[in-house]
Amino acid sequence: MVKGLVTVAGAALLMLSACTSSESESEEIQAFSPAAYEVLQEAERHTGTPYEFGGDATEAFDCSGFVQHVFEENGVDLPRVSRDQAQEGMFVTRDNLQPGDVVFYQNTWREGVSHNGIYIGNNHMIHASRSEGVTVISMDDDFWEPKYHSARRILPEGSGIALDAAEPTAFLLQRTLTRLYAEQQRSETDA
């Protein structure tokens, strides 16, 4: 648990440093729909949920079960497996990603599309990891970056609200760190 807290805390420092605002960062402002914000909130609720191959319930998820559940809770039906989910919505280039887009990875445990997650901004995604369960990671991670395959915009484009791209990331990090700190305090009290 301490290792996980240190990892999340380190990621928080990196991401929060990216959350500062200045004139030169104005290109980081992007519009995304309130629906995307709802998707990110639902995804964050499951941070820390364990991984289980084939899992698609709130007790345990695999990657595509997690994505399917989050979107289903927001009124969007998706197929069950990542390779089928990769055919849904609209193709998006990596440099045009918006929070709420689904990102896909190939050759992670089998050939072709074999993993996915939800883009949250600032080149980070939330996904169901075999080793950590539902967690936030950088898409520049040494393992994930070379395996990037594609992205799809599942949510309908609509009346976007202009928010700094870092806001969803900061929101998720703040809530995740608060929850992890509370869990650590409980475990220390119980010990």
Features of the shown structure:
191 residues, 36% helix, alpha+beta, endopeptidase fold (from Nostoc punctiforme), cysteine-type peptidase activity, disordered N terminus, two-stranded antiparallel ribbon, 5 helices, single chain
Write the layout of secondary structure elements.
Blueprint: H1 2-18, E1 29-32, H2 34-45, E2 56-57, E3 60-61, H3 63-72, H4 82-85, E4 90-92, E5 102-106, E6 113-121, E7 124-129, E8 133-138, E9 148-153, E10 161-164, H5 166-190
Antiparallel strand pairs: 1-10, 2-3, 4-9, 5-6, 5-9, 6-7, 7-8
Overview of the structural elements:
- By secondary structure, the protein is α+β, with helices and mostly antiparallel strands.
- The protein has a single domain, classed as endopeptidase fold (from Nostoc punctiforme), CATH 3.90.1720.10.
- The chain is built from five helices and ten strands, in the order αβαββααβββββββα.
- The longest helix has 25 residues.
- It is globular, with a radius of gyration of 16 Å.
- The N terminus is likely disordered.
- Keywords: Hydrolase, Protease, Signal, Thiol protease.
- This is Hydrolase.
- Belongs to the peptidase C40 family.
